[in-house]
Structures
1.
Amino acid sequence: MKYRKTTEFPDDFLWGASTAAYQVEGNGGGKGPSVVDMLLHPPGTADFSVASDHYHHMEEDVELFAELGLKAYRFSIAWSRILPTGRDVLNPEGIAFYHRLIDALLKANITPIVTMYHFDLPNILEEEGGWINRATIDAFVDYAAILF
């Protein structure tokens, strides 16, 4: 099909990109294991322990986003980076990482769009029954309160 007439996108349209924490961040900085970290990978293939190492190269990545002309960046926050055990024990390094990321995006005139959860439940909560356990829902409420 050939379009003979195209419509322009509005000036305030948010051209951007998106990632999930487990896809790009890698481990480090006090992050606890999530269900994704427990997945088995065939020998010789990449896993999520390093991923794109966004955790250690975030500033460079944001510079590349700006160079690409992104107007928005949708990213997820790794629950297990904020609360390594899923509840109770706050990881200041994790909080600081996301503050630095949001500040870097704003400085580059890129709108941050935050996803609180993207399929990376802290593994300990999965071992306790996961989402069918009411305690996981209560832990998520506490996690949300920290983020807000």
2.
Amino acid sequence: TIHEGGHHFGMSHPHDGYDSEFCMDFGSSGPLYFGWAGDESNTVMQYIGLTTKFSRFDKDNVYRWETAGYLNWSNNLLDDILAHPGYASVSAYVVQAESYATASLATFNSWNYVVSATYAKKAYWSMAKAATILGIPTPDAMQADLGDVNPEVPHEGDPIRFPDN
């Protein structure tokens, strides 16, 4: 149950992988079988059954995803905001967002993932405020238009967890 709950929060198995160079997800089979070595870690998301606890590794995993998601959402809004004729009226929000994003990356690089996610969320809130003032739809508002899918529940296709999907 704890393992499946981890999937509900957007967590994957340690033996699953993503290759950023080729922009592809991969499983641990064939020439990539070595990915199973990741299962020997202190996380409920592994298959070996080493722990049933929601460990520091699991919490860090969630906060890393949150950081990436909020910063991706912020970046997605930036182009539309900069191109809008009313940009000057919301430029202070963009500057504030940039400050939060910089702090997010600095704390992320210091491995303080919970603080990093907090700054990333603040960066997104600043960008979302600017977008709302300009009438630009925000990713979280667009996500709410998914019909009967609950936008509060992470799932494949959420732009915060899978921005290219």
